[in-house]
Write a structure and sequence with these properties.
Mean pLDDT: 81
Low-confidence stretches: none
Helix content: under 10%
Largest sheet: 6 strands, antiparallel
Structural class: mainly beta
Radius of gyration: 20 Å
CATH topology: Elongation Factor Tu (Ef-tu), domain 3
Oligomer: single chain
Order of helices and strands: EEEEEEEHEEE
Strand order of the largest sheet: 3-8-9-10-7-4
Distance between the termini: 31 Å
Shape: elongated
Length: 150
């Protein structure tokens, strides 16, 4: 799989690399033309209590599963010659699908698995590109709180 870099405004270069993500990640309704998904962090935990006794026994009480956290990371490219702007696409997707505006859960496909949850956060970080300091590559993280899975 190729890593993609913005080398010149309006031009994207793909470089073959072994560190690219080997699976396919898709967020329902998110199909930007000037942004891509570059990473994912998924966490799911149980809800438990550990009780230590005076006779050195440890009792574990399990109360089911907690909500999970899924963070999708990506890169948004500056305005392309076709008019698309990756950061605007990411912002518009978040504004339309965040939990405060969208009562329905969104689906995230990771390979053949589907994870559902509510979009609860967005983080944007501007940074200069290694090739051209005047053509920044915007980094983004979309946070989704996921429903416990069996």
């Amino acid at each position: 799989m190729a890593d993609i870099f913005n080398s010149t405004p309006g031009i994207v270069v793909a470089v073959e690399a072994e560190q690219a993500i080997p699976s396919r990640i898709r967020i329902g309704g998110f199909e930007p033309k000037a942004a891509l998904i570059s990473g994912m962090d998924y966490r799911q935990r149980t809800n438990q209590q550990f009780q230590y006794s005076l006779d050195r026994n440890v009792y574990v009480y399990v109360f089911g599963d907690l909500m999970g956290d899924l963070v999708i990371s990506g890169i948004a490219f500056p305005q392309l010659c076709t008019g698309e702007d990756g950061i605007v696409e990411v912002l518009n997707f978040y504004k339309a699908n965040r939990a405060a505006k969208q009562p329905d859960a969104i689906a995230i496909a990771v390979g053949n698995e589907v994870i559902t949850g509510m979009m609860t956060g967005l983080r944007l970080a501007a940074q200069a590109s290694g090739y051209d300091k005047f053509a920044p590559a915007e980094r983004y993280d979309i946070t989704i709180n996921t429903v416990p899975r069996d």
